[in-house]
Design goal:
The chain is of the alpha/beta class. It is built from 14 helices and 17 strands. It is globular.
Amino acid sequence: MSKDILIRGGTVLTLGDRTANLADGDVLIEDGRISEVGVGLRSRRAEHVDASDRIVMPGFVDGHRHSWKTLFRNLDQLTDGQNVLDAELSPDDVYAASLVGLRGALAAGISTVVDWVDPPKSEGNADALRNAQRDSGARVVAVLSSSLEASSIRAAADPNQAFVTTAFGAESTDTEDVAREWGMARELGLRIHHHVDLNDETRGRVDELGRMGLLGEDVTLCHCSGVGDSDLAAIGSAGSTVVITPASEMAGGKGSPPIQRLIDNGIRPGLGVDSESNAPGDMFAQMRAVNSIQHAGMFDLKLSGKAGLPQLLTTRDVIKYATSGAARAVGISGEVGSLERGKWGDVLVLRSDLPNIHPVNDPIGAVVWGMDTSNVDWLFVGGEPKVRGGELVDGLEQTLQLARSSHRRLVGRTTRGEEQ
């Protein structure tokens, strides 16, 4: 059981619908959950954390990631060489990649990761990924890909765990297959996540799913670059949600996320990382990317003489896309995403006394525009410290060693293959 924690004297950004932000406030975590947010809180049994010159906010929620690809960080693009490595991943490689990816997320202030279980189909790979998710210390929504055996999905489906819950990841594009897959997910009581990468030939397919009565509030659509107006209207009317991964989508050739068109249809997206092979693994980068995309689009229209343009996104909009909005988009807003009584004690403490953002004119603006992972001071998940003083609490060297060993094996296999 986690210790009680009293975080005192910080600028508290609750980002909740029922709790105000506080210029100088406290957050009390008892039995792993937030019991009170206010001023002058006291607790005799709690460990005290001094949040002076700090910003206290919910841990980030990464709405879409493939952690098993982490060993391929910073490759710039998905190359044929990487595809060869994908096929050769062993369970040890998958475990090491996912563990270093998820612990890297913690170090970046991300408390919840929606992580797809879709590694290459070698025996034991999916189990290795699930083990890494459980061992990482992060709060994980494990999205079980439909590429897995149906019996495996049924056996693993358990929506009632605390730190690693399950959802369903649909991969099919054929509407009949989608209907079958989504039906199985609903029988199991699992939320549905679905990749949506549309083009001129497939535009309108989401609208078709809506007309078939398949869309609903239990559906999260990922990416959505290239969707048509009828698709967006169908998503909005059905109450389905969207997660975009702006840095990865632009660098990986999926196009710019349709942020303004989403907003125009009443859809407030969550943000995610996707793959670190061609995108940063932190939410600071995603917030800046989506803000810049929308601002650039509006300024281009203004320069071309257009009038009556939509308002620019604000930092208050965007910080919610990475916290409470992302939690809502993946169906866990009742548990995480804001600092409110009864929610899990997933709390991020950020240093505001560093030269990259000091002096702080606006705390939310400082988080969105100025901060990066160097500002992460503390991260609690369920009241348990995962980052303390900017460093992972435990397991760092072991995690790095596992990643190094797997990387050396993969590089060795590739080198031997080229010599033959």
